[in-house]
Amino acid sequence: MPRDFSRARRVGDQIQRELAGLIRDEVRDPRVGSVTVSEVQVSRDFSYADVFVTGLGMDADESRDMVRVLTGAGAFLRHQLAQRLTLRKVPTLRFQYDPTFERGARLNRLIDDVQPDDGSGSRDSD
Known about the structure:
Mean pLDDT: 84
Subunit structure: Monomer. Binds 30S ribosomal subunits, but not 50S ribosomal subunits or 70S ribosomes.
Strand content: 15-25%
Largest sheet: 3 strands, mixed
Organism: Spiribacter aquaticus
Pfam families: RBFA
GO molecular function, one term: ribosomal small subunit binding
Helix content: 40-55%
Protein name: Ribosome-binding factor A
Number of domains: 1
């Protein structure tokens, strides 16, 4: 019987929770503000994990700069994860900018900018 929730996905969820706390508590670089770890995708062989992050209140350039800082702190964060998780092998962390929140905010602005229909369309009320 196939599993709906694979081990790689469970490990990814656990890494996501731990990384969110580690970044908040341990990374002291001022370019890393409020970070949301939106998703972690672990490879099938657990050799690497793609970590998707977004900086809250940051524009795209600031968020990409934050990704560079987190990539530089990747070895430190991986070491901290190894101490917190009971895994034989902790995957290499590959940080990537996740534009999902930015797209969502842009769509909300577009929806808010649309003028409501005043009801004087082509339909006639009888």
